[in-house]
Amino acid sequence: MKLLFFSLKMIKLDGSYLEGGGALIRVALALSTLTGKPFEVEKIRSGRPQAGLKAQHLSAIKALKEICGAKTSDIELGTERFWYHPGKIKRGVYEVDIGTAGSISLFLQAIIFPCLFAPGKVTIKVKGGTCGKWQASVDYLQNVLLPHLRKFVEKIELKIIKRGYFPKGQGEIILEINPRFKISGYESFSQFSEDLIFKTAKTTLVEQGKLEQIRGNVNASLDLQDKEVAERIKKSAENCLRNYSVPINIRTEYQNTFSTGGEIVLWALFSKDGKMNFDNPVILGSDALIEKGKSSEEIGREAAERLKKEIDSKTAVDKNLADQLILFVALLPGSELNVMEITKHTQTNIYVTEKFLEVGFKIKGNIISVLEKE
Length: 374
Description:
Blueprint: E1 11-14, H1 23-35, E2 39-42, H2 55-68, E3 71-72, E4 81-85, E5 92-97, H3 104-115, E6 122-128, H4 138-149, E7 153-162, E8 171-179, H5 189-199, E9 204-205, E10 210-221, H6 229-241, E11 248-255, E12 262-271, E13 283-289, H7 296-312, H8 319-329, E14 336-338, H9 344-356, E15 359-364, E16 367-372
């Protein structure tokens, strides 16, 4: 029977690094679970008004205890220091209720990465918030992030079952992953890594290419239908984007939800030589929340202006996607990203990734390159 190699060396992480946010915890959990390397972190979220672990961190750790039999020190809401020791990743069906409007997307940042390489199909059913402030929504994950992960797996699909808005949440999604590379079949992480590199195309997202079309989704709670909020947001966004002279397809939908809310998510699709690259799709995204005090027209215009800024930058990766891709491109040395803006989130994720993987990152201008450590 083949076993994973587990390092006994405890990786030490400073939770106050740069902005001292929760991304550091999510990335560390994901990398630790895949590599088998335990870690200890202190000063968790010390850069935030309420320091320590939040509900989505606790839900992720609880889920990973099921998925891989991980062990941790005692943790609760507000815990500012803990250690985590992963076990062996398992296939299966897992159900998680984050509670209220705890972010589904942020929870999944800790879960998707190791589950891509499980020994069999993984199905994760999650309840929580489907969009919110300071996070990518589930629609963004579905349409902007996941296309970049398809080369690692046989199949990955995210289904949005029910919308959940702040503060009550109660949205639902189902994520299904059919792995291509099963880490349990390798005698060591380095053997797994070598096979992955040999059989998977590097991530090369440098040239933007030709803009082919713009897609989007406006989702809103049913109580906003009489005022035609979704339709007005859609129209406002379309008017701002017409100068690109490409097809624009923005869907609208209303759902009966526990709280009033919604959002618009836009994504622009690019081609090279008339085709989209399956291994390296260029997709730029943007979004804007439905909030009190903002007109529908303002919301549509806000999302459209953000997308225009990304398109006009001529880069191939939007600033929010960049930090989410760091984990995945780190598995493929030689990969390159041309990013509009290198955020503190991205820098934090690089800091953590270099602690777990035998790679280094080079930043020159707006280009992030992944290098093998000598």
